[in-house]
Amino acid sequence: MLALHGKGVSSGIAIGRAYVLKRERVKVPEYVVPTHDIDQEIQRFLAAIEGARKELSEIRDHIPAEAPVEVASFIDTHLLILSDTMVSEAPIRDIREHQWNAEFALKTQSDRLIAVFERMEDTYLRNKKIDVAQVVERVLRNLLNPDEREDDPVPADLLGRIVVANDLAPADTVALKSKGIAAFVTNLGGPISHTAILSRSLGIPAIVAVHGATRYIDNDDQLIVDGKRGILLVGPDAVVVAEYERRAQKIERLQRELETLRTSEAVSRNGVRIQLLANIELPEDLNAVQQVLASGIGLYRTEFLFMNRQGPPDEEEQFEAYAKVVRALPGRPVTIRTLDLGADKRVDIETPVTTINPALGLRAVRLCLQEVGLFKLQLRAIIRASAFGHVRLMIPMLSNVDEIFRVVDLVREIQSQLRKEGIAFDSQMPIGGMIEVPAAAVAADLFAAHLDFLSIGTNDLIQYTLAIDRVDDAVNYLYDPLHPSVLRLIAMTIEAGRKQGIPVAMCGEMAGDARYTRLLLGLGLREFSMHPAAMLEIKKIVRESNVSDLEVRATEIMRSRDSRSLQRLVEAMNGEADSGNGEI
Ligand code: PEP
Ligand code: MG
Fold first, then answer.
1. What is the pLDDT of residues 501-555, one digit of tens each?
2. What mean pLDDT do residues 316-333 have?
3. What is the mean pLDDT of residues 457-478?
4. Does the beta carbon of 8 lie inside 6 Å of ligand 1?
5. Fewest CB atoms within 10 A around its CB: which of 61, 187, 308, 582?
6. Which of 78, 368, 390, 507 is catalytic?
7. How far is the CA of 188 from the centre of ligand 1 (A)?
8. Domains with residue ranges and CATH for the chain
9. In whole angstroms, what is the distance from residue 158 CA to residue 180 CA?
10. Which of 125, 454, 459, 463 to mutate for ligand 1's pocket (most ligand atoms within 8 Å of CB)?
11. Which residues in 365-487 belong to E strands, given as ranges?
12. Pairing of strands 527-530, 504-506
């Protein structure tokens, strides 16, 4: 038996035979096109773009009815990339100017684009390069064999098979799901690539970044995929298979149990009510929020509205997007975070990164206070949306109390303008801030004094506290939510909110990770905002907990003198209480 490791991106266990998707990478020829053939070469390029467009439209038209909404949007992203002039027109210039053949011109342009994406600090945007590469590959295949296009090289029926591939495009993933695959494993990929996101929403166990998987695995090999732990077993013996079958059954049972919690309240055994809120990126995510009956939105990452498009959305478009979410959740809080764009999360990929250290540069509220025109437009849209429900405005990346004053001044100015124009809004709209810079956590009391609520952004708080770039693989091993310094900053922020009498939420990934729920409850956290898929598991823990007991345990944990004993105490706290959910 061979054990391979990768990044588990979608939980669950699958046992089945391998189907190895051997798609060789297309080899790109390079030659000079004679002057008199240039027009013909351009026509050949345009025909390939058209061929790729037809393929994608075909896939889009055959998306299974039960597929989640984001499936169509992933295909749309590829169609958008295909239509972008950077892909569909820039190579024409190179064909004309340098007499390059179409394949080489396209590949060169794609390399330029990918290099720009690679320089981005934001993982989400960096992963966009995968989409560009996949679209370019599709066009290249069309260029190379226009007559014998491999529309569907995969057998129609893959029921129960585990697909092993170099990489999978979202379109491939959807097509494979409809063929009944049980799981997939890829050589490449990251946890927030589209393929990973899709695997979670389609509910297929998946492991990415299993380097060499296609090299070590042959068709029909018996495989076990443990999507939670990122373990792939090749050729397991009967005893191991039986053990995993038992675990798979247990997971299924636990998942059915969790479903029954949809309508149950998030109240602890000793009667403490906990707010379980959802993080969303786009109004389309509402579906998932409704499915788990979240008590509201704790983080609406509005910058995603500004991406994958030519210019920024105008006030009206933003207003519609925000109001749609607010109207869909009557009576429930919708926390709209103002733009968290910056040198890294850029919308204009053509401008090279000039900042030396973008994570410490002009991002989020700093950028907004510099680009006041853009910011005011967003504030107006948010304030107008507040007329339709319970909007909470949230400021990201606060590092200075003065930033609060400047935002509040702008809000008041816009509110008085709207009043004059006779446009409705909620004059009581709470204004809160994210605590994600250590300076803000250390002085959380000073920030709390001027805000209506706080929300701890652990993703950035951990990055800045431990001085580890959140997207740098080389230092990822140091990423540790249980680092005593991180825990102290979290505890200080919760305490500052308590003293000031304002709510404190957490909306970083830590809030949706079941390993930390009990400790956070013990530290006094009462609002957790997370990806909707994590919510039922967290609700189960809340319902099984006695918060007073956890508070005692947390005090003990915070007294530990070193990381290792702290870790052991947290594990013990979870172990004693765990009713078996750890499997999921
Ligand atoms: C965070 O930093 O924890 C957070 C929630 O914001 P983002 O992940 O969008 O930076
Ligand atoms: Mg952040």
1. 999 999 988 998 899 999 999 999 999 999 887 899 999 999 999 999 999 999 9
2. 96
3. 82
4. no
5. 61
6. 507
7. 25
8. 2-22+152-237 (3.50.30.10), 35-148 (1.10.274.10), 266-579 (3.20.20.60)
9. 6
10. 459
11. 390-395, 431-435, 453-456
12. parallel
